[in-house]
Amino acid sequence: MSIKFRLTLMSFLQFFVWGAWLITIGTYCFNAKGWTGAEFGAIFSTLGLSSLFMPAITGIIADKWLNAEKLYGILHILYGCVLFYVPSVNDPNTLYYVIFGAMICYMPTISLSNSIAYNILKNNKYDVIKDFPPIRVWGTIGFIVAMWITNLTDSKANANQFYIAAIVAIILGIYSFTLPKCPPQRTISADSSFTEQLGLNAFKLFSNSKMALFLIFSMFLGAALQLTNMYGDSFLDDFKNVPKYADSLVVKYSTIIMSISQISETLFILAIPFFLKRFGIKQVMLFSMIAWVLRFALFSYGNPAEGLWMIILSCIVYGMAFDFFNISGSLFVETTTDSKIRSSAQGLFMMMTNGVGAYLGSKVSGYVIDAYYTNNGVKDWHGIWLSFAIYALIIAILFAIFFKHKHNPDEVANVSH
């Protein structure tokens, strides 16, 4: 097998083992277990909590002591073993710690998979900028395929979703040991301070008012990034409780409908260079925030019959909402930070969005839904999505007013070379 094919397979499986349950765990917790929004919010918050520290720790291990591909394999095998245990858990407090354990193993593998791919491509004289994106897009395809399998095997509301992910994760873990070796680069010197080794020196960026404002907005928007992953499938599945929608395709194939969001991602990624060059980083981030408003508002007013177009359009808009902020935000960090702390700065950006923001969004949304939008176990999905839309709109307006960044058409070109 060619190097590129082997890396493509790694990328496909990397996100398959997440997509098999990430979108449907809400349906499992609400419908199969009957747990509250606060209980589910706490469980889902472990994604953000583990993102606060695990990528940095595994980065140090891969830099100093252990081959990246071996560490990657060990983490996936452990992740698979933990997922096998999930179906036996019947208490939300226990599941919190079990999923937290799974996320401690899984979340750092996202950045590790990128590092492994970069390393192997460079060692085999490939052009990373040209050859990596077609490899990475298969990760999104893997996520979509896993969602479809979970839906078509009627696993979205039962424990089978975790078994599917667990089996494939262990296969991926074993497979990773066959990849070309990625030995420690030892880029961190022995006399580096503990703060430097953990990448914490990037926190001095908060002393820059513009960067501090950007990171704070990143945190607030990060709180919205996982909301539809948390509640989207449960929302569509709940239409089964409305007699005229009970037998609709939306209810039967809710996870497949949700996968349109990931399909949209692959298309909007291709449009990013044009939008960045034409409108600039701030405008593209603002487009993302407006897209989040539409994402939530369309869900609020959509239904499986005459409002089906709103649900479909909401899923299409997701690609712009998710990709435009993540990529333009990463580019802003790349173009405005010192090269000596650029990697740490990127880690700080991811920590603020996928760590602090995602954690707060998961916890707070669960409590808000329980307190204001749940009556006798029935959720007011219209009110839930509308409140999320208003939240995103407030963030967008404040960002447009307070975040100052002048568009420079050359900044995109400079980064790509």
Using the 3D structure, state the CATH architecture of the largest domain.
Up-down Bundle
| Straight-line distance between termini | 30 Å
Give the biggest beta sheet.
2 strands, antiparallel
CATH superfamily of the largest domain: MFS general substrate transporter like domains
Secondary structure tally: strands: 2
Strand order of the largest sheet: 1-2
Which ranges are low-confidence, i.e. pLDDT below 50, for 5 or more consecutive residues? none
* Gross morphology: globular
How much of the sequence lies in strands comes to under 5%
CATH class of the largest domain: Mainly Alpha
Mean pLDDT: 86
Radius of gyration: 21 Å
Note the main attributes of this structure.
Growth Hormone, Chain: A; 2 domains; 417 residues; mainly alpha
Walk me through the structure.
- With 417 residues, the protein is mainly α.
- It folds into 2 domains: 1-183, Growth Hormone, Chain: A (Up-down Bundle), CATH 1.20.1250.20; 201-417, Growth Hormone, Chain: A (Up-down Bundle).
- It is built from 19 helices and 2 strands.
- It has helices spanning 3-19, 25-32, 37-44, 46-51, 54-64, 68-85, 92-123, 128-152, 160-176, 194-197, 209-225, 227-237, 249-252, 254-279, 281-301, 308-336, 342-372, 381-402, 410-416; strands spanning 374-375, 378-379.
- A two-stranded antiparallel ribbon has the order 1-2.
- A hairpin with a 2-residue loop joins strand 1 (374-375) and strand 2 (378-379).
- Helix 2 (25-32) crosses helix 12 (227-237), helix 5 (54-64) runs parallel beside helix 7 (92-123) and helix 8 (128-152) runs antiparallel to helix 14.
- It is globular, with a radius of gyration of 21 Å.
- 49% of the residues are buried.
- The model has no long low-confidence stretch (mean pLDDT 86).
